[in-house]
Write a structure and sequence with these properties.
With 129 residues, the protein is mostly helical. It has one domain. The chain is built from six helices and no strands. The protein has helices at residues 3-28, 35-39, 45-68, 72-91, 96-101, 103-116. The longest helix is centred in the first third of the chain and has 26 residues, at 3-28. The chain is elongated and about 50 Å long. The relative contact order is 0.16.
């Protein structure tokens, strides 16, 4: 791996870490403005309130794994979760631009996954490279 690729990989790892850590901290604190984003999928407000700390814990785990041990399964999850949570905005009634604004939340883990190489076999999802 050349120096430029290694630098880009670390920038992406730090970016993913920051996004998922920040979101995790907000979710642990049960950020009230996020309850409608979960309720839009049919969950009650009480269930959304209960789910947020679990979501926050998962996000914080993803943050540290992406920074320290970015195995492909974590990057795949971060891409899917980042895309789904960004898409929850317009589904919950926010403008489509709220989804666009959050593109980096899923594009950064996808870019890091692309740099590592997309998995060709199932066992590859548990590897860094």
């Amino acid at each position: 791996m050349n120096k430029t690729t290694k630098t880009a990989e670390w920038i992406l790892r730090i970016g993913i870490f920051g996004a998922f850590l920040g979101h995790g901290i907000f979710a642990l604190g049960v950020k009230q403005s996020w309850i409608p984003l979960i309720s839009a999928f049919g969950f009650s407000e009480a269930t959304a309130t209960t789910l947020l700390p679990f979501i926050g814990t998962a996000d914080i785990l993803v943050a540290f794994l992406a920074l320290l041990w970015p195995i492909r399964i974590v990057l795949i999850w971060a891409t899917i979760w980042g895309f789904a949570t960004a898409l929850s905005r317009p589904i919950a009634g926010d403008p489509f631009w709220d989804f666009v604004e959050r593109s980096a939340n899923w594009a950064a883990p996808l870019a890091l996954l692309a740099l590592q190489g997309f998995p060709k076999k199932l066992k590859d999802i548990f590897k860094v490279r």
